[in-house]
Design goal:
The protein is 37% helix and 14% strand. By secondary structure, the protein is of the alpha/beta class. It has one domain (2-270): Metal-dependent hydrolases (TIM Barrel, Alpha-Beta Barrel). Helix 6 (142-150) packs parallel to helix 7 (173-183) and helix 7 (173-183) runs parallel beside helix 8. The radius of gyration is 17 Å and the shape is globular. It starts with a strand and ends with a helix.
């Protein structure tokens, strides 16, 4: 089994100012060592380390961790896709096999950024280097994401955190319609991850999360969904095991082969592990 979405950081209150006072539990350092016992207990063999900081220094930080810890099977890093010398940067990063793809925090950007022809041109260049692209956005940005993705045929994409639906309010109508449209693009997959952060952290109900799972699995099918934890961010709500058990419980409705796809095989294929 592979966890397709974890973060590691040495906490810096200035750089990591998105981790606010309500998130005290994650205002500290998180390293691969913190996951070893959990992964061992759950029989998870490794993870994808995803950028949490938007700098190329982050790539070197994650590469150093990957060299020291076998559980890191791949890295989704950060590179400036608007850089006029992007080809040069991508050629440089080709020297590091652990880097499988890239991500930008699009949830912090506006529609104009997502649909900026220069940004789209940058994403188009990734295919030449066999890189994936992680899409991080809120539910109200999905229309722009759909327009962006439609301009970049054949690029492997994965939607992080199910496109961040409003789990808390359960106002899922527009999100559901956009997920259905996005999933019509065969080059887009989806991570079942990150939903605890969008729920009422302390008082969410299983049904609220399963309502979102229903939409994702109907749209993408188990052959294009992969398990992720969004650890340590999800600790603002529950322990790692609680999230894993929740996804595992939902997945009981699928065949053994479908479960293998969700919890590992899809990730191995997508990220070329």
């Amino acid at each position: 089994m592979i966890d397709t979405h974890v973060h590691f950081w040495n906490f810096d209150p200035v750089r990591d100012n998105w981790i606010n006072d309500d998130m005290q539990i994650i205002r500290r350092d998180f390293a691969p060592e913190n996951l070893l016992d959990i992964y061992s207990d759950l029989n998870i063999k490794g993870c994808i380390a995803v950028q949490a900081s938007q700098s190329e220094d982050e790539n070197h930080f994650l590469l150093k961790l990957a060299a020291q810890h076998e559980i890191i099977k791949g890295i989704v890093g950060w590179v400036d896709l608007l850089n006029p010398n992007l080809d040069e940067r991508l050629s440089y990063w080709q020297n590091f096999n652990a880097i499988k793809g890239w991500r930008h925090v699009l949830q912090a950007e506006n529609r104009d950024f997502i649909l900026n022809p220069a940004f789209i041109s940058g994403v188009k260049q990734l295919k030449e280097y066999h890189y994936t692209y992680d899409l991080l956005c809120y539910h109200n940005q999905l229309e722009a994401i759909i327009q962006m993705v439609d301009q970049i045929p054949d690029q492997p994409f994965v939607l992080d955190h199910c496109g961040k639906p409003d789990v808390k309010s359960q106002d899922l109508k527009a999100w559901t319609a956009n997920i259905k449209t996005l999933a019509e693009n065969p080059n887009v997959q989806c991570k079942v991850s990150g939903l605890l952060a969008e729920a009422d952290w302390q008082n969410w109900k299983e049904k609220e999360l399963f309502n979102c799972f229903d939409v994702i699995f109907k749209a993408f099918g188990p052959e294009r969904v992969m398990y992720g934890s969004d650890w340590p961010v999800m600790l603002i709500s529950r322990l790692y095991q609680d999230w894993f058990n929740l996804v595992n419980k939902y997945a009981e409705r699928f065949t053994e082969n479908e479960r293998k796809s969700i919890f590992g095989d899809n990730a191995k294929t997508f990220y070329k592990l």
